[in-house]
TrEMBL record:
<feature type="transmembrane region" description="Helical">
    <location>
        <begin position="424"/>
        <end position="443"/>
    </location>
</feature>
<dbReference type="InterPro" id="IPR005428">
    <property type="entry name" value="CD36/SCARB1/SNMP1"/>
</dbReference>
<dbReference type="GO" id="GO:0005901">
    <property type="term" value="C:caveola"/>
</dbReference>
<dbReference type="GO" id="GO:0030169">
    <property type="term" value="F:low-density lipoprotein particle binding"/>
</dbReference>
<keyword id="KW-0449">Lipoprotein</keyword>
<keyword id="KW-0333">Golgi apparatus</keyword>
<dbReference type="GO" id="GO:0034383">
    <property type="term" value="P:low-density lipoprotein particle clearance"/>
</dbReference>
<dbReference type="GO" id="GO:0005041">
    <property type="term" value="F:low-density lipoprotein particle receptor activity"/>
</dbReference>
<dbReference type="GO" id="GO:0005044">
    <property type="term" value="F:scavenger receptor activity"/>
</dbReference>
<keyword id="KW-0832">Ubl conjugation</keyword>
<protein>
    <recommendedName>
        <fullName>Platelet glycoprotein 4</fullName>
    </recommendedName>
</protein>
<feature type="disulfide bond">
    <location>
        <begin position="252"/>
        <end position="313"/>
    </location>
</feature>
<dbReference type="GO" id="GO:0007155">
    <property type="term" value="P:cell adhesion"/>
</dbReference>
<dbReference type="GO" id="GO:0044539">
    <property type="term" value="P:long-chain fatty acid import into cell"/>
</dbReference>
<keyword id="KW-1017">Isopeptide bond</keyword>
<keyword id="KW-0564">Palmitate</keyword>
<dbReference type="GO" id="GO:0005794">
    <property type="term" value="C:Golgi apparatus"/>
</dbReference>
């Protein structure tokens, strides 16, 4: 009777272990469904969700660091037509996105519109100098091509000028144009937008994707497409096998980025995405860029790589965007202007995206602002069209320690706890089941041997 009880107990234990293991196995898909449902609910842009709180507020501090290119041989360029030699000055750092979204309006078609206030506050502690540092750079009034030759001569202007960092970035009164000019003139009194984006209420895969932004600039259906989000977040459950798309108002176009590697950011695993070399490739190498090529002369019949003409969205000003130091650009760009040292690590643009929520937790957007000038005899002996580097900037933002701890506590720890429970139940259940079966076999064999004896 005792032996029968032991065998029955072991069978019951095996059944119990199997039930526990099955429960652990069931929790895996059920837990995943719970996680997906919760994340999807909180990722929708509507009042009361985590996504809305982060989206509507100013969020993490965004800094923009400027490096200005100083021409060190200005007189040789003017007298002899020598290639400009430049050296970087900076960084000069400003806090930018510190103002919350404005004029937020929700619409019945599951979209929300808003404006982004522009602002810039100088951060001396993060800068290599002051705003009063003087730089020898391209004369903006001459470069924009608005001033007539007679105006340039009568005002005794030169192709180069010496201005303070503050003047070059935020504006100064120009004697030729008799008005204000600067790279980011009146920036503090302007808005980026109007934006209209999908809330994701009807389809979470559309959350944050841009529906409308100002007007079109490229006069081409393909180039005017608004693909993806504003890069602050993406739809949840990111698949690293697929590229991500985002729109940048700095260059008035959408771009894509591909998965590069998984990195650990303050205890959180994130996917790092970076721009492909094909983004600014010439139409010869990337036919998709054909509609971005509008000036056959300056682009050398659309064979020039690494430079994007954005004059159509800059009120006709001859502004050309590239990666810093013409990274991934045509070799001629670095022979026309000397002193450049492109480096993938320091000059690429990347985003670190948390794959479960789709939130961008860290990014570095690097852009170089260029202007073209020439050929001309009015302001020196400039024999050919030359890309003059004006400035580069790196715009960065990363989550602080407090936000990282909150993120890990509210999301990551719960997911990890559920996974631990799943694994423990599955492991313990299987262990009990196997041990009970083994002991059952031992007891039964012992019982059979005793009967034969």
């Amino acid at each position: 009777m005792s032996c029968c009880n032991r065998r029955c107990g072991l069978i019951a234990g095996a059944v119990f272990g199997a039930v526990v293991a099955v429960l652990g196995g069931i929790l895996i898909p059920v837990g995943d469904l719970i996680i997906q449902k919760t994340v999807k609910q909180e990722a929708v842009i509507e009042p009361g969700t985590t996504a809305h709180e982060n989206w509507a507020a100013a969020g993490a501090k965004v800094y923009r660091q400027f490096w200005l290119f100083e021409v060190t041989n200005a007189q040789e360029v003017l007298d002899d037509g020598a290639a400009p030699v430049v050296t970087e000055r900076g960084p000069y750092t400003y806090m930018m996105r510190y103002l919350a979204k404005d004029n937020i309006t929700f619409h019945h078609n599951h979209t929300v519109s808003y404006l982004l206030p522009n602002g810039a506050i100088f951060e001396p502690s993060m800068s290599a100098g002051t705003e009063e540092d003087k730089i020898t750079s391209l004369n903006l009034a001459v470069a924009v091509g608005i001033a007539a030759d007679t105006m340039i001569k009568t005002s005794n202007s030169s192709l180069f000028q010496r201005r303070t960092v503050k003047e070059l970035l935020w504006g100064y009164h120009d004697p030729i144009l008799k008005g204000a000019v600067g790279f980011f003139l009146d920036y503090n009194n302007t808005y980026d937008g109007y934006y209209n984006v999908f809330t994701g209420k009807d389809d979470i895969l559309n959350v944050g994707k841009i529906d409308m932004w100002r007007q079109s600039f490229w006069n081409d259906k393909y180039c005017d497409m608004l693909n993806g989000t504003d890069a602050s977040s993406f739809p949840p459950f990111v698949d690293k096998k697929e590229p991500i798309f985002f729109f940048s108002s700095d260059i008035c176009r959408s771009v894509s980025a591909s998965y590069e590697e998984t990195v650990n950011l303050k205890g959180i695993d994130v996917y790092r995405y970076s721009l492909l070399q094909s983004t600014l490739a010439s139409p010869v190498d990337n036919p998709d860029n054909k509609c971005f090529c509008s000036n056959m002369k300056t682009t050398k019949n659309c064979t020039l790589a690494g430079v994007l003409d954005i004059s159509s969205c800059q009120e006709g000003r001859p502004i050309y965007i590239s990666l810093p130091h013409f990274l991934h650009g045509s070799p001629s760009l670095r022979t026309d202007v000397l002193g450049l040292n492109p480096d993938e690590e320091h000059h690429k643009t990347f985003l670190d995206v948390e794959p479960t929520t789709g939130f961008t937790l860290n990014f570095a957007k690097r852009i170089q602002v260029n202007m073209m000038y020439g050929p001309s005899k009015v302001c020196g002996d400039v024999k050919s069209v030359t890309v003059f580097l004006s400035s580069t900037f790196k715009q960065t933002a990363t989550l602080d320690d407090e936000t990282a701890d909150m993120f890990k506590k509210e999301l990551m720890s719960r997911i990890q706890m559920l996974e631990i429970i799943q694994q423990v139940l599955l492991g313990v259940g299987l262990g009990i089941f196997v041990l009970c079966l083994i002991f059952y076999c031992v007891v039964r064999r012992s019982h059979n041997q005793s009967k034969l004896a």
